[in-house]
Amino acid sequence: MKHVDGMSNNDPFPNSSEDLALITLRKVTLRLLPFLFLLYVVAWLDRVNVGFAALQMNSDLGLSAAAFGFGSGIFFAGYCLFEVPSNIILERVGARRWIGRIMVSWGLISIAMMFVRQATSFWILRFLLGVAEAGFFPGVIYYLSLWYPSAQRARAIAAFMVAVPVTGVLGGPLSGALLGLSGLWGLRGWQWLFLLEGLPAVILGVVALIYLTDDPKNAKWLTSAERDWLIRAMAVDRAASKPAHAIGALRALANGTIWQLGITFFLAAIGFYGYTFWSPILIKSLLGIGDLGVGLVSAAISVVTIAGMLLNSIHSDRTDERSLHVAIPLLIMGIGLFGCALLPETGFAVLLMALIPLGHCGSYGPFWSIPMRFLRGPAAASGVALVATIASVGGFVGPTLIGALKDRTGTHVLAFMLLGVFGIAAALLSLCLRRSKDLRDRGFAKSIAA
Are 200 and 41 in contact (CB under 8 A)? Predict the structure, then answer.
């Protein structure tokens, strides 16, 4: 193993330390990513399992399409209100404590969902679930920026965020099977679903307090040489980000590029979350299959999504290009939404529906690596949280819009056409990022003259 010496300001991975770099990043990856991936699987499952619960719950509680859509979306109202404050607290107290707290609280509220009896209690608990989970996702994105230099960050983020489609692979069949427990010990299947899918969050929250390490300086599981290399590599990476010296946490909240990123994913999230919460009901109506069958179809869609997500992120890192690697997947998502609207009564619509998560999730790695190209420290924590907050508003709009229009028109056609427009607008707006001065300073759009 070669020792680190003479590290260039432009290259945190000089040849003299190549072996050490590979070994260190491999250790970091094996230590952190599998666990963070598991946490996000549980987080996503508890966020979206209401879509499967609706297959029984809506009739049991007498929920209309509008009431269910509003309850699905109101999660993001609580999420948005506490996203930025939560991430600022995480940056101050450390990821270990705050992520553990987030998980325990959201797990308990998710379990409490089994006790809802009418629309009002459903809405209240969904709102509180959003409050509890606020800060988890942007907190992990910020946390990864402490461990991975920018050249490796998109694939690290993608490896973490592949939990979204993996949850579809595992959670779809699991949720469908849990609905089959209806009647056991006097509980309906949707109550078993909330109970058994909420417990892992509480358990893993306690584990996080023991297992996670706040930053490389405290990583006793690295050798001293590995720890020194990583600390130095991250210092070089931070130094390469000129705006980091000029933008504090409060100024990051007013940064134009941050707002452009947030609006881009706000438009994308409208379509994706509309699909996420309503897809089990739509798949069942289009194919005429049972609850477990719906779960298996959802799993098949997620398998394709995983492959596209990883391939796009790896290619984005290799080419050091982000904008097109966000725009093209979001365009694919928009095409899928239009396809579902134009072919509303055919099984082929389910195949087009698969383009929605393929496109949206495929953009994750490149997109969420963008803020870290020009923000660091507290500015990164608040900036990423603001992007996630703005985007999360789309999580409220999408499901609510579909529910309201479905009640009025009796079909999802008009809603999905509107969602398709939003998806294509997001793709076009992401192309405009190539002209951002913040990102040109970091070589974001090399083909555009400064």
Answer: no
Region 413-429: mean pLDDT is 90
Does residue 9 lie in a domain region?
no
Phi–psi pair at 40, nearest 5 degrees: -75, -35
Q: Are 140 and 99 in contact (CB under 8 A)?
A: yes
Tokens representing 134 are 């606020």
Torsion of the alpha carbons at 117, 123, 129 and 132, rounded to the nearest 10: -120
Q: Report CA torsion sign: 83, 84, 85, 89.
A: positive
Angle between helices 136-145 and 150-161 (to 10 degrees): 150
pLDDT at 447 over 60: no
Residue 12 domain-assigned?
Answer: no
Let me know if residue 424 belongs to a domain.
yes
- Where helices occur in 212-347 by DSSP H, the ranges are 224-239, 249-252, 256-287, 291-319, 323-342
The candidate with the shortest Cα–Cα distance to 258, out of 157, 135, 145, 382, is 382
Q: Which pLDDT value is given to residue 192?
A: 96
Q: Which of 289, 281, 295, 305 is nearest to 402 (CA)?
A: 281
- Cβ–Cβ contacts within 10 Å for residue 119, how many? 17
User: Pick the residue with more confidence: 409 or 201?
Assistant: 201
CB atoms within 10 A of CB 443: 12
Indicate the number of domains in the chain: 1
Cα distances (Å, whole numbers) of residue 143 to 157, 343, 360, 363 = 10, 43, 23, 20
Interval 205-237: pLDDT, tens: 999 999 999 999 999 999 999 999 999 988 887
The Cα–Cα gap between 43 and 159 comes to 15
| DSSP class per residue in 427-441 | HHHHHHGGG-HHHHT
Residues 69/399, Cβ–Cβ less than 8 Å: yes
| Residue 269 phi, psi dihedral angles, 5° rounding | -65, -30
Does 132 score more than 50 pLDDT?
yes
By three-state DSSP, how is residue 292 classified? Answer: helix
Q: Which residues span the domain enclosing 357?
A: 18-440
The Cα 179–Cα 302 span in angstroms is 20
Task: Look at residue 257 and tell me if it is in a domain.
Answer: yes
**Residue whose structure tokens are 């607290």:** 89
189-204: average pLDDT: 95
Q: Is 148 helix (H, G, I), strand (E, B) or coil?
A: coil
CATH number assigned to the domain comprising residue 141: 1.20.1250.20
Give residue for tokens 């194919």: 287
Question: CB-based contacts of 58: which residues, under 8 Å, 6+ apart?
Answer: 68
Please tell me the distance from the alpha carbon of residue 194 to that of residue 114, in angstroms, as a whole number: 6
What is the maximum span of the chain, computed from C-alpha positions, in angstroms? 69
